[in-house]
Amino acid sequence: MSTALTPVQEFLAERLGPDALEAHAFRGDVTVVVDRERLPEALRWLRDEPWWFEVLTDLTAWDRYPAEPRFEVVYHLLSLRRRERLRIKTRVPGHDPVVPSAVPVFAGANWFEREVWDLFGIRFTGHPNLVRILMPDDWEGHPLRRDYPLTEEPVEFRGHVPKVPSQIVPRVPPPGEDP
Q1: Domains of the chain
Q2: What is the pTM of this model?
């Protein structure tokens, strides 16, 4: 943990001890990196008094491949009473992409966790219905992983062949050229 901590960072550092892995603030955005096993506990403390981070505004992830731990799951919290924002992160290894679900603490995490599962393949233990939400049920893989193969599917037009851009966009001659 860094030396100049905000009160909420100090609170988490005291409660979590070495499981509060890192803390920093940049341009008013406060971040604390928490061990994934202690995440639900930390979120519960932050939701309840005295902090009142009562809203989970976003939950997302990013793939740091080829670095390990491969993934970071990011929780954006908001305190309406205190007018503060807080970012909680947890790091997840690529060989075991599992995080405890935040749904028991913030019900709004439900669809966010489904989206992260669908696009990154990070599983949330204890989630009530962890199924795909954006991709078709029979889709193979998780398309926001950095090692996901980029492919192109040919598009077949039937009955109507679109015009090429030069047929649609009128040509405007440059200054000095006759039309």
Answers
A1: 7-168 (3.30.460.80)
A2: 0.81
